[in-house]
Task: structure prediction
Amino acid sequence: MLGSAIKAAPVNQQYVLCPHCNLHRGQVVGDGKGGRLCQCPECGPVQIEPQDLAAVVLNEDWLRQKLRLALEINSRDGIDQVGPGIWRLGDARQGPVILARSLSTLVRAPAILDGFRVKGASLRVITPKPMDQTAHPFTADIEWLPLQERFAFYGDGISFIAPQGHRPEETPREPAKPVYGPFSSDFRQVTIPGWPHGPIRLSKGQAAVMRVLWECNGEPLLGERIMTRAESSSAKPSDLFKARSKSPEANGPHAAYIALVSTKQREGIYWMKCAKKL
Ligand SMILES: [Zn+2]
Result:
């Protein structure tokens, strides 16, 4: 599922972490039968499976390219490394976008960012968000995009999650026409073919899940990721769409879910076919 986001990492084939204790490194030797053994100083000889010698790392080039795509950076300048663990990804809407491996590096030395400020455009900074970081770490003119909150990984791409405030105003009392495929603009109403009772009303929680699936453009996403993005406390999408009533009319949300959402239960992934961009 991770596709090109990861690549094989070169590993030392002479020594390996002991597959039995995972504590000591042992020399790799042949077992005389075509296989290999780890000479663990504690456990003695331990058989090595091929996957014990495999390792993967994040494909950083991939990450930077996909972040550029997610932010619609198409400036002609490429990606520049501007410091240790700091890259300039390019310009989005005239404003430069900086990616840094660590937030604390920038917070400790804010002068690093001064050189990137441009008059009349905002400076955006992407970093991973440390667990204990709740406050905005920069001066007010810098927009911070925490990697875990503003970006989602799906299929073989990365999408940008706009802050809530930037979404178009919702007009809850208006008669909802389908705007996004079968959904109204606030995703609270959905129309499915073959349903005789008219448009189906969704709860706020159900609408949030449908919106996340819609925004994935038909790409599969892990159920738990969907629920996190929908800010739901339920474990998986189907939990919110169970048939609850004997009257078929009241089970509209369940019918909409069955009609629109595809799933591979074993892999825990969900997608919405009709959201696929043509
Ligand atoms: Zn061992």
The helical segments are 60-70, 103-108, 111-114, 147-150, 204-215, 223-229, 252-260. Residues 204-215 form the longest helix (12 residues).
